[in-house]
Amino acid sequence: MRNIINFNQDWKFIQKDVGLPETLPQDCQTVNLPHTWNAVDGNDGNGAYDRGRYWYAKSFETPKQPLAGGRTFVEILAANSEAAVYVNGQKVTYHEGGYSIFRADITDYCKEEGENLLVVECSNIANDFVYPQHADFTFYGGLYRGVNLISVPNAHFDLEYYGGPGIMVTPKPTECGGATFEIESFVKNADENFTVQYSIFDENGEEVAYAVRPADAAKTTILIPDANLWDFDEPYLYTVVAELQRRNETYDDIEVRVGVRSFSCDPQKGFILNGEETPLRGVSRHQDVMYIGNALSKDEHYVDACIIKELGANTIRLAHYQHSQDFYDACDELGFAVWAEIPFISVMSKNPKAHQNCIEQMKELIIQNYNHPSIMFWGISNEILIGGISEQLVENHKELNALCKEMDSTRLTTIAHVSFTPVDGPMHYITDTESYNHYFGWYGGRMEDNGPWLDNFHEKHPDICLGVSEYGCEGIITYHGSEPKCKDYSEDYQAMYHEHMAKVLDERPWIWSSHVWNMFDFGCAARNEGGVAGRNNKGLVTMDRKTKKDSYYIYKAYWNPEPMVHLCGKRYVQRAGDDREIKVYTNQELVELYMNGEKVGEAAPVDHIARFTVTMKDGENIFLAVAGNCKDTMTLERVETEPEIYTLPGQDEDGGGAANWFTAVGDVDLPEDDSPMEFPEGKLSIKSTIGQIYKNEEAWKFFFKMTGGKVGPDMPMWGMMENFAVEMLMGMAGNIPESAIKALNKQLNKFDIVE
Fold first, then answer.
1. 455-505: pLDDT as tens digits
2. 618, 646, 674: which is the final residue of a domain?
3. What is the CATH number of the domain that holds 614?
4. 114, 268, 386, 485 - which has most CB atoms within 10 Å?
5. In a shared domain, residues 237 and 372
6. What is the rounded CA–CA span in Å between residue 335 and residue 306?
7. What's the distance, Cα to Cα, between the start and end of the chain in Å?
8. Residue tagged active-site, from 75, 243, 364, 383
9. For the chain, what is the domain count?
């Protein structure tokens, strides 16, 4: 029988590249898994976190398998981003990719008696052949999901095929209210005496269907006449058990949970689940908690899923890599439509090995997660045009999409375009659905630009299923003001931004999905902005999961039907001035507001917001909002001068960042020119990357002056920024006259590309 041994306790960790240990090291740290060595410095804010090649070691006795020809496997649930496994000094396997399961048969390397030494070599050192290459998040190193030993008989369900479970189940609803379950399992080393027995159990543990197949042809279809559907509100799960039997004895067994559902996307109707039009509205999520990094426990994954469910979201985009099986399980149980993707992000490596790694990671993603009913979309890339476009890049995408369709015909494919991706061009019509990452109102443009852009695209491409895969802005709960504005990093501007975006999306049900960037603040060692080092602060919830920002509650008002009311601005405690606005978020029809026990008034919410104007008395004022049976309170203080901590120290009037890099264009002698832009071979242009310009000393002097010295290799995010094309950055800046763009291109044409 299969025996799974949890192998997470008491590992020896050597945070030096000392080479392969020959014996169990003693003079080093003892750690438990999951573990990352970047839990703290992964949020350093200067991009200098420890990216090294380090060693984990643990001793063990060879498991005793009572059945014939026992085999022992090591199961690595994830190791970022390269890993090699050694047993008793011999190399067993090597794996590239930091987010997926891999296993290896270690039987022949183990001693029959006595202690064995298991060593795992982990590396998150930068290379050009494993994705991700560059991205706006920390590449945490370590054995951050845990390790198991698996003991099985010689005849067993396959453990080695791309880390999969050894079984694929495809439930399909029938027109008569039932469902067929197409089941295929994969058996190794079984002779003609072996059979596979399938049992399907309902949520009460009652067996509702049964079948038997020969082990060498273990594919079958089973009918359940009356089947319960899996949906967002009632995510009904069946358990499928496969048992490998020889005569009257079970040799191996596996079980998976599955759900019966149908889904599709329509360019005009949006997302359809089980025949009902149901717009997908939700969030993106990184596997990242403060001072834990990506080394989350099962409970911590489940807590994240519950916080998202409380929000009322029905979809999660899992950025930008395969997540833990624990989180996929939680999504199955709680009812989410999941967008699962590989880390083909930002920049395509020119190394052919990298494309093969991309293919391998996609195979692992699909095979390991095929049975999860929550997963409905395979994402093939994210913002990949940051590094520029080429024929090879387009062909790689077509190959990835075809691979997804070949391996899984039941799910849809999708892609997340960077904002400046042209609305026409070869990157369209590759996948079943498409989405754009737009940050109008934060990285250039105004928040009011979002609706018209979506409408214009929809009008131009009425046959494309369009979504919004990322949108958001920074919100730091210390910063506040009565007149919030873009780039002030305040909780108040973030709330105002999401008030607008929630309405934009609610008015356009044909948008098949939308995903807030991000559900939680997350680690990015290269970031240092808003007075917070090493973090992206666009989350609706803080990185420690302790504070739900005001923006969280506007979505709860839109998406969660459970009655709620929320007073905004509870952390904006000390306020100066006379008349002040009090905002209340709710999904109820009427809100009453009381101040110091006296009724201020009542208001019917507009777009889930009730607004009141009050004049506070000096000192503390207690507010009570009542909506139906829901109540919320806060205490504010009227002061003469608001605290300085409410304002970002040293804040630039223009907000800084890419959006204002090109404000100096007018200070540089760029004569207007109406002639068509040219892109001569061997010359720089606006299509060139920042890195290409940097290689030409004279060109760089010009470009550095043009950007007002705001961009350069001393930037923490230079590793990704140097791959940005100039035209992309100018697109992010917005409002740059076409004549200035043409003039800039003509000026860059004067300089040679330096290889």
1. 999 999 999 999 999 999 999 999 999 999 999 999 999 999 999 999 999
2. 646
3. 2.60.40.10
4. 386
5. no
6. 10
7. 60
8. 383
9. 5
